[in-house]
Please model this.
Amino acid sequence: TGTIMLYATQPGNVASDGTGRNGLFTESLLEQIRKPDVELDAMIKQLARDVSEKSGKKQMPWKEGIVTGDFYFAGGGSGSSASSSAAQPVSNPTVTNSVDVEEVMWQEVSRINTKLAVDSYLGEYPNGKYASTARLKLKVIAAEEEKKTKVLETQKWEDAGRTNTIESYQSYLIDFPSGEFRDQANQKISDLREKLRAANKPKRGGSIKNTLGMEFMGIPAGSFLMGSPKNEDDRGKDETPHQVTLTKSFWLGKHEITQSQWRSVMGNVPDTCFEKNEVRGDTRPVVCVSWDDVQEFITKLNAMGQEKYRVPTEAEWEYAARGESTRAYFFGDDENEICGYGNGKDSSFSVLNGKTMCRDGIKGTTTVGKFQPNNFGLHDTVGNVSEWVNDWYGDYSNGAQTDPAGPVSGAGRTFRGGNAFESRKNTRSAFRSFAVPSTRDYRVGFRLVMEN
Model:
């Protein structure tokens, strides 16, 4: 007693069609069950060998179930001797104790009731007596699977709604890319991202820090008079005053990029001019970096997934450095106050480019953030190092401008702000200078804008 279910091939494989009326498996099976006095287990083993050999070992029948006792398709296990079998050969034996193979297979398919089982039946009997029922069964199975999938999808969608995060809706879309709630999920993601952008929109006094320790201050949109008035002491001819409006708020580095931060992105710090001057130190601003070097740094930083970064435009830099001040410096017009707000040239230096300014013993650059910030919370916009900006150097416009980006070309890239090696006039908010983009100088570093 018991049940044996024979499949044409193993799960996941495709059975050979054969060359005749039946498939390879069926042809071999019919051949084996006609042989008299062959017990079931031996017949199945021989069937497997035949199918494997004829298919070039690409197809191997698969058995499921168990039968207790001996079973014979033909001959009934009469125990006739080899001699008597030889004396009475059976060229086309009569099948006794025979079983309708298709019937047995269908009964087992009905018991298992899976798509794999039904597909196996149809693979052997595409035009069998139960073929129509099998195809209907496949539709029923598909409908049941669809129903189960729908339940799972609805549950996943409800879970996403309860969590209400970008990640939860993305997880739903990964599991159900063509799901019923696909459009709603995409809209939810868009809304949440917009909400996040609004929450992270730069606001005056707000700050944000990335995982590399770079901190950024929120600079509000606004208007200011860029350049210097004609009566400002030490002004340059290239500081034509003109009204500028910045329509978007932005995040600007609270400090200049340090040598440690440069190393965390680039692997090392440039040393082309470090030994000669007092500029070395992890917490000091990185110098000896050209405008081109800075662009490479930004490219690598952006590739790290730390938001998107750039150097500020010249207008952004001056607006932020002034901190809403209209004076020569963000703290006023008195140049004698510089040493309380920035790292200016120290008296320990020999006279270079004009008068010395400070007597604080700091020769060269120093740790960023050591001096008082301006009204926007930015440190070292006066002194320490000059800073690369994005603009090509060129003449200012005489008229009002909105979000200016500078000329499309020029003699060099602009840098702004004074440094610890030059005279007081170069620390004014309006002071401008430039160099070719490949220039590396121990007095020049940079700070970054983090785009919202």
Q: What stands out?
A: Residues 131-163 form the longest helix (33 residues).
